[in-house]
Amino acid sequence: MFRYLEIIWTSFKMALQEFRSNKLRTFLSLLGITFGIFCIISVLSTISSMEAAVQNDIKSLGTSAIYIDKWEYRNDSNYPWWRFIKRPIPKYEEMRLLKQTVPTLANATYVTNLNSTLEYNDDILSGLNYYGVTEDFANVQTIEIMSGRYLQQADFDQSANSIVVGYTLAEKMFGKPENAVGNIVKLKDDKRAIIIGVIKKQGQSMMQMWDYDNSMIMPYTFLKQIVKDENAQPVIIAQGKPNITIPELKDELTGAMRSIRKLSPTQEDNYALNDIDSFSKFMHDIFGNISLGGWAIATLSLIVGMFGVANIMFVTVRERTSQIGLKKAIGAKRGTILTEFLLESAFLCIIGGAIGLFGVFILTQICSAFLSFKVFIPLSIIILAVVICLFVGVLAGIIPAFIAARMNPVVAIRTK
Fold first, then answer.
1. How far is it, in rounded angstroms, from Cα 217 to Cα 137?
2. Listed residue (152, 141, 143, 133) closest to 95, CA to CA
3. Which partner from 19, 154, 211, 250 sits 20 to 30 angstroms from 3, CA to CA?
4. How far, in Å, CA of 252 to CA of 265, rounded?
5. Residue 369, helix vs strand vs coil
6. What is the Cα–Cα distance from 262 to 267, expressed in whole angstroms?
7. Which ranges constitute the DSSP H helices of 102-230?
8. pLDDT tens, position by position, 152-211
9. Highest mean pLDDT, choosing among 153-157, 290-294, 331-335
């Protein structure tokens, strides 16, 4: 055991010595390894961080939720867009009928939205999202209130002009978000509303699925007084019971929707059931394909770097020929010589990879400051980079190591 540790330590010192004594030559030779590892880690880390941000945004649409809409979010069948436009919009009455006729349904909510302004005294904020929702919306979505309260059943029953506003909206308009509660504001067309709660800060997101920070939530029947459903991009969000799978729920909803819309067996569906879990898997496949491009660039760089390391090792074997002969003369076995050179080659690649990793770390800090999501380096990718360095190092040093291991000790000692 101690013998192997000694071989590893000796090889590591030799690699450092090679780097110190021939800095420029070693650095230029390792440049391919450095660039290759930089490409692999930077691409995989960026894609991994981006995918994590996208998946979190997709999860915000609702766990195991199905969005009933006139549009297909993926459109795998290449359905022409002009036929989507001709489809009828989801209706509030359809949502109510689904709750009555689909026994596997746990929650169903009708959501409309509008982008408009909010006015308080002489201050006006524009580009805000109005969400008109029904009772089950809070069961499908996670709404955390930091101040005040959320909409209650009485608000829905009475079509109350009560609204819950986002953190950023409240902060911009009232200075401190908690000061927003109890104030009366003007919405579109001078419609008055009272703020009853402030949503906890959500922070930046990549896809801005709901963007609660710059939104307000109100009863659907109140928003209907401001904008007609036809102009409010309505959608029905359905969520099955815990023991019901997505395919089972889709089958139930398909039958129910066809019955509600009185479609004959020969007529095609004039609605879309958008499965959020399938959409998540679809995005995962897209990011997987994107990462292939980074692997292609990195592979070319690693091949160039491998030849550079091999060149270092050939030169190293030539420079240490007499030392190799002396080691063999005093009893060093071929396996020991072979292992020392392979480990030294691997350590050189790790040094090159470490430089690349450091470059990626700096890049992640810069990117995180400018992008809407945090870029990080997962531990699994760092381990992958180390494994790649070891593999490339062994591959690059195997021929020089064999040459060193097979040297004749007498001839090697006499070599100058």
1. 10
2. 133
3. 19
4. 16
5. helix
6. 10
7. 137-140, 153-157, 167-174, 220-223
8. 999 999 999 999 999 999 999 998 999 999 999 999 988 999 999 999 988 765 545 678
9. 153-157
